């Protein structure tokens, strides 16, 4: 596993100044780069940051990121659809329970918030962070040739700026956070 851990670390570090996370099948945060940990934990209740940290809960809980997500209805619908799909495909009771839990959070919606898919390429995460309004889209990567079940259950979510203002803001956040190279 040492080469895999090194590769994962390289992906996280190489993705700076943009946020990147590694989560397991149940959305538990395994690791995040500095950008992710800084942007996604700002103002979050300490109890949501106690291990194991669940990325879905962190995103949608009213004491988590929810108050800073500017398009919360649209974003929660998007995440809920992903969670529902994964719960159905895996038949994992923990995912089904997580879905039931997040459906009880205020403002989490099942539908009618997402614009017509023909009008969009992706659902952005519009997030207020350190005084800036960021607009991000994400990609998910998994290990396609994994023979180890633990490795097979990992997903790397990398976020990218959806506009130039976000690109500049992320670079500025990194400049303040990271030592000069």
Structural overview:
Helices cover 40% and strands 17% of the residues. The chain has 181 residues and is of the alpha+beta class. The chain has one domain (2-177): Beta-Lactamase. It has a five-stranded antiparallel beta sheet. A hairpin with a 2-residue loop joins strand 3 and strand 4 (132-142). 27% of the residues are buried.
Topology:
Blueprint: H1 2-14, E1 20-23, E2 29-32, H2 34-39, H3 55-60, H4 72-90, H5 93-103, E3 125-129, E4 132-142, H6 149-152, E5 155-161, H7 164-177
Antiparallel strand pairs: 1-2, 1-5, 3-4, 4-5
Helix pairs in contact: 4-5
Quick take:
This protein is of the alpha+beta class and 181 residues long. The protein has helices at 2-14, 34-39, 55-60, 72-90, 93-103, 149-152, 164-177, and strands at 20-23, 29-32, 125-129, 132-142, 155-161. It has seven helices and five strands; from the N terminus they run H-E-E-H-H-H-H-E-E-H-E-H.
Query: Number of DSSP helices?
Result: 7
What is the 3D form? globular
Residues in helices, as a percent range = 40-55%
Radius of gyration: 16 Å
Structural class computed from helices and strand pairing: alpha+beta
Arrangement of strands in the largest sheet: 2-1-5-4-3
Could you say how many structural domains there are in total? Answer: 1
Compressed to H and E, one letter per element, the order equals HEEHHHHEEHEH
């Amino acid at each position: 596993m040492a080469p895999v851990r090194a590769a994962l670390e390289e992906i996280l570090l190489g993705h700076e100044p943009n946020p990147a996370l590694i989560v397991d099948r149940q959305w538990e945060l395994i690791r995040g780069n500095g950008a992710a940990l800084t942007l996604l934990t700002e103002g979050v209740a300490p109890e949501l940051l106690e291990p194991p940290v669940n990325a879905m809960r962190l995103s949608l809980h009213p004491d988590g990121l929810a108050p800073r997500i500017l398009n919360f209805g649209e974003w929660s619908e998007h995440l809920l659809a992903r969670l529902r799909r994964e719960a159905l495909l895996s038949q994992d009771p923990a995912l089904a329970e997580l879905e039931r839990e997040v459906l009880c959070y205020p403002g989490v919606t099942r539908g009618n918030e997402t614009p017509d898919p023909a009008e969009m390429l992706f659902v952005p995460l519009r997030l207020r962070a350190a005084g800036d309004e960021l607009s991000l889209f994400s990609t998910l990567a998994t290990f396609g040739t994994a023979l180890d079940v633990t490795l097979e259950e990992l997903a790397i979510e990398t976020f990218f700026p959806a506009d130039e203002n976000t690109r500049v803001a992320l670079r500025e956040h990194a400049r303040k956070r990271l030592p000069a190279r």
